[in-house]
Amino acid sequence: MTEKTIKIKKEPVVKKPKKKEDKNVVEVIVESEKKEAVHHAPKKEKYYEATGRRKTAISRVRLYTKIKTFTVNNKPLEEYFKIVRLQKSAIEPIEKMKIADKLGASIKVNGGGSMAQAEATKLGIARALMKFNPIFKKRLRKLGFLTRDSRAVERKKYGLKKARKAPQWKKR
């Protein structure tokens, strides 16, 4: 005995018009399987992202137009950079462009020391500002915020005590 598979197709349901005036109009509604509603998160705000580097510190900066706070590694800027000089250094490009009250930033930084992290953040903010408004590029370049400081610790060489310091020479 052979088994046959039968596919059942759902046929459209035809509804007749309720009003006598609309006899010519016939609504055709196809019943389809109910799909669960997909809940999408609300649209996230647009941001301008850039990366800044200094020594071994790397900073990823996202500039927001609606959020007016500065967070570094999910902490307020003042809490992360405890020294006021580092706080000012990190957000200096925004202050020089005179738009500190219009923008906020979310910053992820790792590696290096606190000074290198602040400098990397400064470069990242400057690059993000350039994406935010290309007109800022000339002013940022003139102020020196778009130049990456490439200085890093020189490696130690064999036969030397440090990168360049040689052991004391003795005659005998």
TrEMBL record:
Domain of life of the organism encoding this protein: Bacteria
Record keyword Ribosomal protein present: yes
Keyword annotations: Ribonucleoprotein, Ribosomal protein
UniProt GO molecular function: RNA binding; structural constituent of ribosome
Gene3D superfamilies per record: 3.30.230.10
GO biological process, one term: translation
TM regions (residue ranges): none
PANTHER family xref list: RIBOSOMAL PROTEIN S9, SMALL RIBOSOMAL SUBUNIT PROTEIN US9M
Name under which the protein is recorded: Small ribosomal subunit protein uS9
Organism: Candidatus Wolfebacteria bacterium CG10_big_fil_rev_8_21_14_0_10_31_9
Gene name in the database record: rpsI
